[in-house]
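Problem 3 from the worked examples.
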Amino acid sequence: MLQYSLRRILGMIPLLFLTSVVVFSLAKFMPGDPFGGEIDPSNTNPEYIEDMREKLGYNDPIHIQYWRWITNFVQGDFGNSTAHKMPVYDLIIDRMPNTIFLAIIALIITYIFAFAMGMYAGRKPYTLGDNLIAGYNYVGLAIPSFVAGIIAIYFFSFQLGWFPFAGSVEVGLQPGTWEYYVSRMHHVLLPALILGLMGTASYTQFLRNDVIENSRKDYVRTARAKGTSESSIYNKHILRNSMIPLITFLGFDIATLIGGAVITETIFTYPGIGLLFLESVNRRDYAVLMTITMLLSFLTLIGNLIADLLYGIVDPRIRLG
């Protein structure tokens, strides 16, 4: 498994290189630049703007700009944000904990509901409960997350006042105190519920179908013939085999939740990587835009590797060579 992991990690290098070329090219092909999009020419000396473009190398040939960026990038120098006037590394480090916290809570919510509903629907197919769960799945797949977020804010924030509609923590609280952590959980819960529950539908349907399929296999008939209880059959035998499709999603969720948080964080004005990414696109903040895109690409490759490794743990019959 160690050799397999090393080969996969080495194989990521050319993929990340190709990704960097595409990301850099798309960023440079965007109309405008940080100065044209951020500064009003009528209030700023055009000569100063042109001097800044020359100083930052925006007037250099594109291959020279790429080489300068990629050589600095691999050395850990991600550049400076033209919009926030600070190093990109510090900016991402400041926002990353919020996104990770949101992603973890959303992932926990997703798997709790997916396992509960998927196992129930798989054990009792074509019943009223199964049909209700199927109806929820169809609604979850049909409604975009931004629509669900707006509806949730209207009802649970404005009408009922149960959750805050913006921010990650209440202003004025001292970090490290009990009130601070309670406030962070209070602020993250509603966006995490939207992000988690909207992603539950596909998980639930996969688990339900796999449980039904596995319940008809020979090893289940053998277990029933031996007098094994239905609870033990479903919880030990069927569940273990039905978890394999979900393990595939688990690896990809590392990047998917962070990437999917772009819309959710924007709707809830939650200060994380997703909101920062959208701001960087609107403000032509190339350094931030390219760094976050490369980060998501790297997390996608790592998630794929984790999914493959978890295959061998969940199902010992799978061998990674």
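Problem 4, a separate protein:
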Amino acid sequence: MKMSSEDLSSFLAELKDWVSIETPTTSPDKVDELGRLIMSSAKDAGLAAEVHGGNMDTRGAALGDHFVLFDPERMSNEKGILLLCHIDTVHPVGTLAHGLPWKQEGDRLYGPGIADMKAGVLLAFRALARLSRQSPLPIRMLVVSDEEIGSPSSRSLIEDEASRARYVLVTEPGRPGNGIVSGRKGVGRYFLSCHGRPAHSGRAHAEGRSAIRELAHQILALEAMTDESRGITVNVGLISGGTGANVVAEHASAVVDLRVPDGATGTEMNERILGLEAVDPDVGFVVEGGINRPGYVKNDGIAALVEKAKAISIADGQTLFDLSTGGGSDGNFSAAMGVPTLDALGIVGDGAHTLQEYIEISSIPVRWNLLTELIMQL
């Protein structure tokens, strides 16, 4: 289904409105502001919305709403297509004004969250609005607000919606060169806490037990678990602790990211990390967490989706490639359930989570054709 020049202009104008609302996961009021705008557009298009509010992360912090969009005229028990998206981003409020303003440089259009994944959400929304009453299968669109922190409050909703679907299409950003994703690593998230004994670092140093020293031992042990040959990476990405340079640290903590190629490796690594013990018996040590995204492995059902997508691209005069990647997404959940899932069907872009995040404008009509044709052929 070809995109007209008028449709492209309209797409870019609406995308600018969406990017102008900065939506870090930790700012639920801003996430909900964009959510309300999308639901208003959905109402104008004759679509209905289910809102799932009152969400919190694993530490009890508030999160934005999740919502499901669908055509009330197509409600049935028939399994259909789930378009899976998120509107939360990693960039803090203020990035648009100071670090990553909306700007165009040649074919590249920059902005916080533009690739990951507001352009993809808009692509999915417009496909739903255009095709909801003519697609062979009913379409539902799920938009969540906590994907960037591992989807702690939306996972059960994602799995519920995926159980109602015959296919799941995820509009995370397409890869440069017109790539889609047919597999992803499993993801684990762990929280380390060390509790030592404070003391003055000069006159009573021997009486102290440093939580930071204990954390340093644990960091080295964790980083040593990385095995690139097996597709395992362990990254200690956040650390904090101490109260002053002249105080033996009483508290120290860290957040750890794990990536694994499959479920068996995930089980192995989960046991290793949760089995860590304190090096200094006088320091309290706790490790919590686990695998929060199962591995997404290309199977026959996914391979069939890939071949269909490639055929559509060839007919459109394009080449398309698929790959497996280390990054996780909500597609991990549906793929692990055995629902054929195709990911990175959004607008082609790069630089996600950085101040160089962009999309390729020329890819918008290409990806529109790919997604809409795929929906119509499933």
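Solution to problem 4. The CA atoms of residues 58 and 125 lie 29 Å apart. Residues 114-131 form the longest helix (18 residues).
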